[in-house]
Design brief:
Rossmann fold, alpha/beta, nine-stranded mixed β-sheet, about 30% helix, 13 strands
Length: about 240
Amino acid sequence: MTAPLIGITTYRTRNRYQYPQICLSEAYISSLAQAGALPVLVPLGLSESALDELVALLDGVLFSGGGDVEPERYGSQPHPLVDNVDLDRDRVELHLLQKVLAARQPFLGICRGLQLINIGLGGTLYEDILDQKPGSLHHSTPDELPRNHLSHTVRVESNSQLSKILAHPEVQVNSLHHQGVRRLAGDLLPTAYAPDGIIEAFELPGVRYGLAVQWHPEWLQEHLSMQALFRSFVEACSR
């Protein structure tokens, strides 16, 4: 069986000489490769027509984590805690999402990826959970703690695709975000919740594989359930 070609969205940064770079955490690449995929980085700055050609070559797309989406994209107002917005990244990823949905290709969203998918399908976000949702957990783990620090539990809905993949009704996850789903898009089905009620995962019914999680499973590959998440995505892309 030929390994599926899976695109992963990227982000912009600058090196110490201030030259612009297109980047991605190696953890995404290694997680997909270990699950049997051929990962391909999707660069920013491409035209819509170039993105269309690229998507046609891919077997699936992983929408990765990163900075915040521009609030205007979901009908909201600027907020002082919205950070690291890249308008071109928003453009590229929202176009990719529409092409993936139209082609009914498998997709997986992680952290920002979950938020981007919700926005692309008509949902909204908390610009900052702590500021806008009374009684919420602190979902943004301090930088001094490791990326695989387990911050809280997640309750998984028993009748969901995610439940079948993880094989546990409750899992411990890391938490590296300050935004979250405020209003879930109408086509999406919530499949996991944090203890404070924040949606931690959803799926798109009626497609081969359309799933997103708010935590970062690429940093939790020592856990069998998180390995299973990447394997299930790669298997869907292989069909």
